[in-house]
Amino acid sequence: MPQQEIIYLDNNATTRVDERVLNAMLPYFTDFYANSTGTHLAGLTVKEAVENAAWQTADLINADADEIVFTSGATEAINLAIKGLANQDRKHIVTIQTEHKAVLETCRFMETIGFKVTYLPTHSEGLLNLQLLEEIITDKTLVFIGMFSNNETGVIQNIGAISKILKAKNILFMCDATQAVGKIPVDVKKLGIDLLTLSAHKFYGPKGIGALYISAKAKIKLSPQILGGGQQRKLRSGTLNVPGIIGLGKASEIAVNELEKDQNRISLLRDKLEKGLLQFESSFVNGNIENRIYNTTNICFPNVNSEQLILALGNISVSNGASCSAVTSEPSHVLKAMDLSDEDALSSIRFSLGRFTTSEEIDIAIERILELARKFATKTLRH
Fold first, then answer.
1. How many Cα atoms sit within 13 Å of 316 on the Cβ side?
2. What is the spatial distance between Cα 260 and Cα 263, in angstroms, rounded to a whole number?
3. Which of 354, 377, 367, 275 is nearest to 313 (CA)?
4. Other Cβ atoms closer than 10 A to 284
5. Are 114 and 142 in contact (CB under 8 A)?
6. What are phi and psi of 75, to 5 degrees?
7. CA-CA distance, 39 to 43, in Å (whole number)?
8. Does the pLDDT value for residue 3 go beyond 80?
């Protein structure tokens, strides 16, 4: 199927690389290929470019360049942030049941080495109960881990209020902001975030590159997880992925300049899509509709098997669960944590729009999805 025919509504899974990002990267595969640790002119030239990309990335979240550690992506950054705290005296971690599997699985690993982990439930709309958070933390709590914007529903937690609770108790705040950075304003200083993870391919950069923001408070507590030549202030050894870093920097620079433009345009398209799809009988949106990111909607089509519908859509790309999980017929752990039944969870589809989504594509998607959903729902009811 020719690429131009694809209607891509799965931008929370990954995004198309912006051509401006690609053009910025290409010279670092061919002309500027020296190792950034080289002390010769070629190496110093690359080192300067890497340092500039660190500033571009830091500027996106109002951090300093020396607070950024480049990783292979958000999953590695999450592992560094959580496992890197293993040597601390406090042995209690608090997180949320609706977190990404990269957080949940790493927390389960921490349980095997002596940590106690509390997995907090959410309201039915996906928001954390702040009173419950206050009640559960103790003087043994080391870190709270909370997602900025949920990858499946787009629900945005009250990051400022969470931070205020944690600071009063001297507890570290780790935020998985993979679905927020590059889409909405994120200010680590203003929000009081100690550790923040991001990934370039979620906002029109390349795959295989991400970063961990580490505050001064968190840095003194963090131990490296990859040892070797001591690159990146000994926090993450290994030869740097220079083309990827340049791509992340450029994607960050573009996001800083175009955040508002993207939000204004994409939010209108998301609302148009949502309004059209909610014409399906008894359909409803999963998650809080007031506190969510502008590009995402997660809709339940009762009595429709989402897997069957997705396959039938062909060139329209959507998702029925977390983008980084293996294909499975199990209901989404996020939707289950929000008290959806197995049937409704398995009838839900995530739509995530992006910079390259067009109004014409939304028109086509609404028509096709409604047609097929009604067809499959009719078959289900007959049986």
1. 24
2. 5
3. 367
4. 14
5. no
6. -65, -45
7. 6
8. no
User: Does the structure show a pLDDT above 60 at 2?
Assistant: no
> Whose CA is closest to 263, among 162, 153, 159, 186?
186
Residue 324 annotated in active site: yes
List pLDDT tens digits, range 288-318: 999 999 999 999 999 999 999 999 999 999 9
Structure tokens at 47: 């080192």
How far apart are the C-alpha atoms of 10 and 266, rounded to whole Å?
13
Token pair of 51, please? 């340092």
Count of CB atoms within 10 A of residue 26's CB? 14
Q: How far apart are CA 88 and CA 91, in angstroms?
A: 7
Q: Which helix (H) or strand (E) holds 24?
A: helix 19-25
C-beta of residue 144 within 8 angstroms of C-beta of residue 137: yes
Size (the chain), residues = 383
Q: What is the mean pLDDT of the chain?
A: 95
The pair of structure tokens assigned to 339 is 């008290």
CA–CA gap between residue 37 and residue 151 (Å, rounded):
36
Any residues with CB less than 8 A from the CB of 103 and at least 6 apart, and which? 78, 82, 95, 145, 147, 176
What stretch of H or E contains 176? strand 172-176
Taking a C-beta distance cutoff of 8 angstroms, is the pair 36, 240 a contact? yes
Torsion angle of alpha carbons 302, 280, 153, 204, nearest 10°?
Answer: 130
Indicate the DSSP class of residue 287. Answer: S
Q: Residue 223: is it exposed, middle or buried by C-beta count within 10 angstroms (0-12/13-18/19+)?
A: middle
pLDDT for the residue numbered 380: 56
The three-class DSSP label of residue 61 is coil
Residue 337 scores a pLDDT above 80: yes
Q: Which DSSP state fits 205?
A: S
Q: Is 306 helix (H, G, I), strand (E, B) or coil?
A: helix
Residue pair 248/73 in contact (Cβ under 8 Å)? The answer is: no
Question: Tokens 């390349």 map to which residue?
Answer: 206
**CB of 86 closer than 8 Å to CB of 107:** no
Hey, which residues does 237 pair with through a beta bridge?
A: none
CA quadruple 360, 366, 371, 372: dihedral sign: positive
CA distance 131 to 146: 15
Place of tokens 């958070």: 133
State the Cα angle at 183 between 369 and 250, rounded to 5°: 120
Which residue among 107, 175, 300, 324 is the active-site one? Answer: 324
